[in-house]
Amino acid sequence: MDQRAGKELRCKSTPPTLVDQLPLDTPLKSTSSSQRANEQTHDDIDERILQEVNKCVYRDTGGFYKKYFEGKQWSAEAEHTVQRVNPQVRGGRWTEYPAVPSQTAFLEWFRAFQINFLRGGCGLFCESPDLPLAGSDCKREPDLFLASPDAPKHNGKYNWADIRVTGELKKSEIRGEYTKELLWFSGHAREVFAAQATRRFLHGFIIRGSTMELWVLDRSGPYASENFDIHNDPRRFIKIMFGYTRMSDEELGVNTYIKEGEEGKSIVLDEEGREEERLYLEDKPITFQRTIVCKGTTCYRAKKRESERWEYVVIFAWRSDKRRAEGKLLKWAKERSVWGVAKLISHQDLESIADMRKGLEFRKPQKFRSASRDSIS
To answer: Which Pfam families does UniProt cross-reference here (predicted)?
Structure first.
């Protein structure tokens, strides 16, 4: 299902109580966002994540590597790095890669690899296999993740708000463990989307022994590349890890419509037919969704630069291309003098899932039998 991202600006208004009595146009479904605080155990959350991504997961996606790792501004530098590494393959093995790629062995090897070949980019790979990251009630420890080099630590921990790419390491591929690994991996993505509520998408990877699988997760679900063996193609591995450290915010899936400056976060209203105007957002959203597969509705209070009053609400949300934009519905209501409806100041369609996934070829989505239970909690 194609979805579009848009931002809508409204003056704050208290909705009429009648809204609470109207039928919902989307069936109620238990999702990972329904679990909070002390309820957030891995079992509870993982079951809901499985329900959420069921029939939304794609593997062996055609065109994945070409779309995200070829023809980039940093591609020539990546090729130069491959030449510097000069990987030697003997007897079907990359001689520098750990013979027994346990988590400990891989991380020890990769630390030196990063120091020698990946420094100087926009991100730095960090590890936290035994220490949960800050910023979440559900304790999760990503094995490897990319963070900004100047990201601050909170009581010795990185925060989920700092994550740019997430990775999981397994000693080998274990038959029957795929669903469990996917849930663990998706759980990390859930934390990123919760901490970075307007995130467009997230890159990630899973390394099982010497087999690597690349992932992207957006608000329509996760999709993966074809697997490849690092021993058979070490050049690809080097380009991928180098590429992650050189990707721009836009390539990494960060929301680039919100600008950061000395005066804080802001957006520019540049709707056709009106004068450009900048609004400043409160640091934290007043509401957001923790769920991965959803509209991703996120609301910020906003104000003009010279004002002290937070008199606007800015809404970021993804919508199905089969539904009318809410902004158009609000305009329609205004034209008909409907009482109690928020006043719309501006509305824009920014991006669509179809645009973000352009050039990819998808197979059939995966269906998980254990995700068939549907409940309201």
So the answer is: Pkinase_fungal
Phi first, then psi, for residue 371 (nearest 5°) are: -95, 10
- Residues 267-305 pLDDT 10s: 998 766 667 889 999 999 999 998 899 999 999 999 999
Question: At a CB cut-off of 8 Å and minimum separation 6, what does 80 contact?
Answer: none
DSSP summary character for residue 262: T
Size (the chain), residues: 377
**Separation of alpha carbons 298 and 318, rounded Å:** 10
Rounded distance, CA 65 to CA 178, Å? 22
Distance CA 284, CA 298 (A): 10
Which tens digit of pLDDT belongs to each residue from 102-122? Answer: 999 999 999 999 999 999 999
Specify the DSSP class assigned to residue 231. T
What are 28-78's pLDDT values in tens digits? 344 555 555 444 566 778 888 998 999 999 999 999 999 999 999 999 999
3-state secondary structure of 211: strand
Q: Give one DSSP letter per residue of 135-186, joined into a string.
A: S-SS----SEEEE-TTPPPBTTB-BGGGEEEEEEEESS--TT-HHHHHHHHH
